[in-house]
Amino acid sequence: MNWSRPILTDSGGFQVFSLSENRKIDDNGVTFKSHIDGSTHRFTPEKSISIQENLGADIIMAFDECAPPNDRDYCQVAMQRHTQLGNALHGSKNPFRPGIVWHRSRRDIH
Fold first, then answer.
1. Whole-model pTM above 0.85?
2. Under a CB-based contact definition with an 8 Å cutoff, are residues 88 and 45 in contact?
3. What's the rounded Cα separation, in Å, for the pair 37 and 74?
4. What is the mean pLDDT of residues 73-93?
5. Contact 103/80 with Cβ under 8 angstroms?
């Protein structure tokens, strides 16, 4: 990459969100079809971390799910899933692993 400064990478969660017509989310990750060639891909938290580590990132983000903020029940499930999947970061070689702040406007989910 030829960059000597810190690198922050994203998990790919928003990109998955943008493929809403072509994806299936479960408790272990997401399966989606490419919008380019229709091929099927599987992303797990561990795969997301591995990709970010292979890029040499100094700051890596947990694989997250962008939930619709007006659907309380979905937000609750998605936040719990994110917490569980975020535990995969504990095995990461990267020392700096911030979590994603979830729906600050939703004070009714924990």
1. no
2. yes
3. 30
4. 71
5. no
